[in-house]
Design goal:
The chain has nine helices and 16 strands. The chain has 265 residues and is α/β, with parallel strands linked by helices. It has one domain: Spore Coat Polysaccharide Biosynthesis Protein SpsA, Chain A (Alpha-Beta Complex). Strands 1, 4, 7, 8, 10, 13, 14 and 15 form an eight-stranded mixed β-sheet that branches. The chain starts with a strand and ends with a helix. InterPro entries: G1P_cyt_trans, G1P_cyt_trans-like, NTP_transferase_dom, Nucleotide-diphossugar_trans.
Length: 265
């Protein structure tokens, strides 16, 4: 099953970083957040990616073009212009990098990926959010209901400290807890190919007409994820994710947890 990733937006709310690179190339722990997202899927053996490019898409192309060399030891024979790679540490990913236009909206980008996805079920997410969602359970849920679309619903982390009162006394204080109420679109979709019929063209925003029509038609189901989820919309979000990574407390880093569990056996 292919995984489609939308990586073409401008990322204007993260302009401190995105004036020189697209948002999916903003780094957490020295690696682009796009890499982190792909690692999430790869842990569940989803290694076939189709990436929709737009704003500064050449930066993403160059990153993957150079990836094998950067992740390997090299012998470079300058006079002959030859390069031999040794100990290639690159993951077993197949990555299709597709230009989908600078100003194309999210629905239009999905529509432009149709020739590369074909008439098959696929997964979809944005290139700016991480989670510890279990993709096997997500897929099982999607298969169980037989509808065209599944969206992962999440409870976002609150931006401010949460307080409960007993009169005027603070009975409970939680710094930036997971929101107790309200579900939002956390992306991480599973979709059937029929959803392409819900998208008119480049000017279609996926979160508007297509998702609204799918809901009206009874074809949109929600997989409720109670665990960690965080998007990277602002510099504050980026610093929040970076702090967790540096502390070794990144909930989305499931691949390191897998290594530790394997070593403990």
């Amino acid at each position: 099953m292919k995984v489609a990733i939308l990586a073409g937006g401008v990322g204007s709310r993260l302009s401190e970083e995105t004036t020189v690179k697209p948002k999916p190339m903003v780094e957490i722990g020295g690696m682009p957040i796009l890499w982190h997202i792909m690692k999430l899927y790869s842990e569940f053996d989803y290694n076939d990616f189709v990436v929709a490019l737009g704003y500064k898409g050449k930066c993403i192309k160059k990153y993957f073009f150079d990836y094998c060399s950067l992740e390997s030891n090299l012998t470079v024979q300058l006079s002959e212009g030859t390069v031999v790679r040794h100990k290639n540490n690159a993951p077993n990913w197949n990555v299709e990098l597709i230009d989908t236009g600078i100003s194309t909206l999210t629905g239009g980008r999905i529509k432009r990926l149709q020739p590369y996805i074909g008439n098959e079920r696929f997964m979809l997410t944005w290139g700016d959010g991480v989670s510890d969602v279990n993709f096997d359970r997500l897929l099982d849920f999607h298969r169980s209901h037989g509808k065209l679309a599944t969206v992962t619903a999440v409870r976002p982390t609150a931006r401010f400290g949460h307080m409960k009162f007993d009169g005027d006394a603070v009975s409970e204080f939680s710094e930036k807890p997971q929101a107790a109420e309200g579900w939002i679109n956390g992306a991480f979709f599973v979709l059937e190919p029929e959803i392409f019929d819900y998208i008119e063209g480049d000017e279609t925003q996926w979160e508007k007409e297509p998702m609204e029509r799918l809901a009206r038609d009874g074809e949109l189901m929600a997989y409720r994820h109670e665990g960690f989820w965080q998007c990277m919309d602002t510099l504050r979000d980026k610093n929040y994710l970076e702090t967790m990574w540096q502390k070794g407390d990144a909930p989305w880093n499931t691949w390191e947890k897998s290594k530790i569990a394997t070593a403990a056996r």
